[in-house]
Amino acid sequence: MTETIKFRPLLSTAIKLFIFHACLLAVFIYFWHTLQNWIYLAIGFFPLVGVIAYAKPIIFLQQVIIGKGKTITIQYWVGKGHTEKISKALYEVLLTKDNEIRSYRFNIQDRLFQVSPCVYIDGELLAETLKPFAKNKRINTKPAVIG
Questions:
Q1: What is the pLDDT of residues 9-50, one digit of tens each?
Q2: Pairing relation of β-strands 71-75 and 5-7?
Q3: Fewest CB within 10 A of the end CB: N or C in the chain?
Q4: 107 near 89, Cβ under 8 Å?
């Protein structure tokens, strides 16, 4: 690797799903308030989970920077980030049913991070960059819960 590459998250899908779940939650809260039936509040729990899940990538804006010296930096929208050698930090790989790599897990400065290339702009390049590190080192593999 001869240059530093910065990978930014794909936020368009997360924003669309966040808005959808927020609107659905608002509808259920409106029905609960208007009709005074608690079942609407109970059903509203499911879109609330969606709102929380899709707000996280929007709020944290996790970026991955692959450096010249085979280093990885995980950086949020504020702060300098957490940097470590890829070969040292990579400790686990999640696989799909077809034994394709879905996600990489890193332990950087005693903090755990998960990087899924499919949620980043130019994720194919990120996957190609990280794949040799997963094969060179004896890494734990786990099946992904979905996929």
A1: 989 989 999 999 999 999 999 999 999 999 999 999 999 999
A2: unpaired
A3: N
A4: yes
Residue position matching structure tokens 């079942």: 39
Token digits of residue 20: 């959808």
- What is the pTM for the complete model shown? 0.75
Highest mean pLDDT of the ranges 15-19, 57-61, 103-107: 15-19
Per-residue three-class SS string for the chain = CCCCEEECECCHHHHHHHHHHHHHHHHHHHHHHHHCCHHHHHHCHHHHHHHHHHHHHHHHCCEEEECCCCEEEEECCCCCCEEEEHHHHEEEEEECCCCCEEEEEEEECCEEEEECHHHECCHHHHHHHHHHHHHHCCCEEEECCCC
